[in-house]
Amino acid sequence: MPASPPSTAAPARTPHGAPPLPAAHRTGGPLRPRRATGLPERLARSAAAGQGHHLSTDELPGWLDSRRRAGRFRVFRVPFTELDGWSFAEDTGDLVHRSGRFFSVEGLHVTAEDGPVPEWHQPVIRQSEVGILGILVKEFDGVLHCLMQAKMEPGNPNLLQLSPTVQATRSNYTKVHRGADVKYIEYFTSALAAGRARALTDSLQSEHGAWFLGKSNRNMVVEALDDVPLHEDFCWLTLGQLGALLHHDNLVNMDSRTVLSCLSAALTGPAERDRALHTDQELRSWFTHERARRALTARSVPLRDLPGWEWDAMAGRHREGRYFDVVGVAVEAGNREITSWRQPLFEPRGRGVTAFVTKRVDGVPHVLMHARAEAGFLDTVQLAPTVQYTPGNYAWLPAGLRPPFLDQVLDGTAGTVRYDVVHAEEGGRFLNAESHYRIIEADADFAAEEPPGHRWFSRAQLAACIGQANCVNVQARTLFAVLDLALG
C-alpha cells in the first residue's frame, strides 16, 4: 500500500485537539532524511531485551496485583433508571448522556448484498470524538522502554490490565467529567508541540466496526526528551518484556496492543521487505476492488423500536439470545481521574475466535488476510484476520454459509497452533468481551487457491498497511503485534 502523503501546515488547534506544529518546524532547507535514522535498530534492541530497567518480567504480574489491591475497584449492574446522567431520549429512545458528550447508544439498520445475512438491526455506539492512545518511550542504558499503566476498566474480566501511558477520549482529557488531569497527557499535546518530545508513530486507527459507528483513535508512540517522573500506577517495560507478557491471558489490554502494532513496520526484517507472493500493486488493486464492490449500507434508526430487540429495566437484548446485550453498570475506581461513575456497556454473548493463518513462501512469512466488511467502518471494508467470528452467532447457519476457515480453525485441521491466548477487547465500552487469539501455521495443502475476499500478504506488506489510517482492523493489529513481539 502507498505511504501516506507528507503533512501540510495545520491550524494552531484542530477540532480533535491535535497539537500545533512544533516551533522548530521549518519551511526552508536544508533537506533531511524522510525517515528517522536508527529507529529500526533501537526498536530491535528493545524487542531483544527480555529484562528492563524498572521491573523484571517475572515481577510484573505481582506488581499488577499490588496495584489492584492498592485501588478500590468495584463494578456492579444497575437498572437503566439508575444510570445517573444517562437517559433514553424522548424522540428516538437513544441512550444519551446529559452533557451531549462521551458517547450514545443508537439504533442501526444494515443491508448487505454480500454475505449470509442480507439485513439486520442492532444497537451501536456512536462516539464521534477522536481519543488518544499513546505510549511514552524513553531510553534507559541505551534501550528504549515503554511507560505502561496499570489501568482499571469496568468491562475488563479482571478489571486491571496493562494499558498505554495515555488512554483517553477527548472528553476525558479536556475534563468534561470535571475530574483530575490525565497523567502524562502533556507529552502527547504541549510537550510535543514545544519540541520536548517527538513522535515516533502517529496514525488514526479504527476500533471495533461491529459495535462502533465510524470510531477512530489517534495511536501514538512519543519519545520523551527530558526526565519523566514515575507515578505509582506506571512502570517502564522493554518491547521484549511486553512480547513475553502477550503470552498471558487478559494482561495486555486492547489499546496497548493496537499502539504496539504501529511499531511493526520498523521491526520487519530487511530480508522480508522486497519479496512477496503478490506485488504491492496487485494487493492494492485487489483491496480497492473489495472496497468498491462491497455494497453494505448502514443507516441510523431510533433505538426505541429496533426490530428483533427487546428491553427491560436491566438490559436490551436480541430476542434469539445472540450477539450482545446492552447493560448498565455503576463503577468505583479509586485511582481514576473521576472515582465513581455510571455508564452503559455492551456485553457479548459468547467468546470470539480470532486467528491468523500463516505460511512461509520460499522462506518469506505470509498471512492470509480477509477483506472484511463491518457496518461501523468508515470505508466499509478493512483488512481483517483470516478468521474473526463468535462461533455461537453462526451456529444456526447451514454448513455452506458458515464463515470460511472457521471450522478448520476450531477443530485444529488448519495447521499447527503457535499461539492461543485469551485477550479482552476494549474494557471502557464492552463488558467481559473476550476472544481466543490464535496464530496457526498452515499445513502444506491449506488454501492452495485463495478464496474470494482473501489474499496472502507478506508480513512486510501487512506492516506497511498498518502504517495507514483505517486500513487494518483492531483484531488484526493485535495479532500482528503478537507476530512481531511475542513470536518474533
From TrEMBL:
Biased composition range(s): Low complexity: 1-15
Domain dTDP-4-dehydro-6-deoxy-alpha-D-glucopyranose 2,3-dehydratase: 58-263, 281-483
Top-level lineage group: Bacteria
Pfam families in alphabetical order: Hexose_dehydrat
Spans through the membrane: none
Positions of region (Disordered): 1-36, 42-61
The protein's name: NDP-hexose 2,3-dehydratase family protein
The species this protein was found in: Streptomyces musisoli
